[in-house]
């Protein structure tokens, strides 16, 4: 049986602030184990999204995709997404909306309600560590993630998106 919520954390730990997804994964994994929420949330880490990730959406009530963004407003954006065709050059790199579209096409049904948490990054150079700004943005994003993982009701996540989450 699958956990009701799946969280995908994507990024390259070798490319500066692109490591925000994997860093978020590591810290969230520790937190979930400490709070005994691991059965409610499954974490998946990868360098990039691929069509195979559509299979990880089966049996879920909610999905969240975490990634770094260069032009994202600080500290992050959180928004609901819908299935859409991706503009990737290969089948090995897809935006989250395209993963949802693959699910729709392969399963013949709608994917679970899905959201993107895009954390602002500043520096994406090969071999660089996380920037100071990215570390601050990560801390804010982790605070949000803690609240989301404690209340996995769709209505609560929609309130976060609209800014009405207390």
Task: Provide structural commentary.
The protein is an alpha/beta fold and 166 residues long. It has one domain (5-162): Rossmann fold (3-Layer(aba) Sandwich). Helices cover 33% and strands 20% of the residues. The chain is built from 4 helices and 5 strands. It has helices spanning 20-34, 96-107, 132-150, 154-162; strands at residues 5-10, 41-46, 62-69, 76-81, 114-120. It is globular.
The level-1 CATH class: Alpha Beta
Radius of gyration: 15 Å
What value does the average pLDDT take?
88
* Outline type: globular
List the helices and strands and how they pair.
Elements: E1 5-10, H1 20-34, E2 41-46, E3 62-69, E4 76-81, H2 96-107, E5 114-120, H3 132-150, H4 154-162
Parallel strand pairs: 1-2, 1-3, 3-5
Antiparallel strand pairs: 4-5
Helix pairs in contact: 1-3
Short description:
The protein has 166 residues and is an alpha/beta fold. Helices cover 33% and strands 20% of the residues.
Supply database-style keywords:
166 residues; alpha/beta; Rossmann fold; 5-stranded mixed sheet; 5 strands; 20% strand
